[in-house]
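Report of the visiting student (M.T.), summer placement. My assignment was to run the structure pipeline on a short list of targets and document each run. The first record concerns ABC transporter ATP-binding protein.
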Amino acid sequence: MENIIEVRNLMKSFGNKQALKNVSFHIKKGETIGFLGPSGSGKTTTIKILTSQLHLTAGEVKVFGSPIQKLNDPAYMRRIGILTDNSGLYERLTIYDNLELYCNLYDVKKSRIDEVLKAVNLVSDKKTVGKNLSKGMKQRATLARAILHEPDLLFLDEPTSALDPVNTKHIHEGLKQLNERGTTIFLTTHDMAEAEELCDRVAFLHNGEIRKFDTPQMIRNEYADSTITLMLAGNKEVVVNKDEEGAQEIYKYMKDGQLQTIHSNEPTLGEIFVQLTGRNL
Ligand SMILES: Nc1ncnc2c1ncn2[C@@H]1O[C@H](COP(=O)(O)OP(=O)(O)OP(=O)(O)O)[C@@H](O)[C@H]1O
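After the run finished, the structure tokens were exported:
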């Protein structure tokens, strides 16, 4: 499968501060990738470099097969969608009018506006002006704008940070559909559950370095311990090893009708992040 993004030995400094240190990764067409890391780890800096909003200090970045330095033109901007917190919505215009403006800019048919409003759950708010929107509504309106022209590649900087659980779920469903229709998605998040739900692969970013980059399942497998917890009748908890002896014990409890629940002791992505970096998300 073709690489949509190729990053080699990327470095970014702000004065003495090294925000990104030797970052390398590839993203394939159709993947949803999550960059996870605590505040200040370099997530937004990565997105800004990939979207031509910041110059890199050293290294090589290619998007759609071309060096990022050559992509600072309208044709590139048409192929990507960006959601960051500097929303770019016109405060005095309604949500609908904001989107209409972008339809004209990107040459998108107006019927698409209602489609994206539905996708972000803002149909009934479309006549509200930008300055009267709540933080969550603003985030959803900006997402609507980012997906209006059905980009090949979508960058989302913490797409659900201001949303309640119902809207988060709605947005997650919308992003999955978009991805199924072929959009490659690069997102940053502090939220491990979001990463698990959406991402094919995740990168753990810490102090400007990638400490891990793999599928959530592979990462969990690597850090899984070798035990299984059984819950028996009378709320009695028993931990057995994943070996012949453990199998015999499980068989015995099942045969006696004592076994109520069974689960393998896999750490969560959040726990692994702490193990790897000593920091919480
Ligand atoms: N314009 C800038 N000037 C100076 N330092 C900057 C600038 N932008 C980012 N930094 C620094 O680079 C580092 C990485 O910042 P970045 O915004 O990429 O982190 P982040 O992981 O996106 O954090 P958050 O989750 O809080 O958004 C931080 O130490 C930050 O202070």
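DSSP finds ten helices and 13 strands in the chain. Residues 32 and 198 are 7 Å apart (CA to CA). I thank the supervising group for their guidance throughout the placement.
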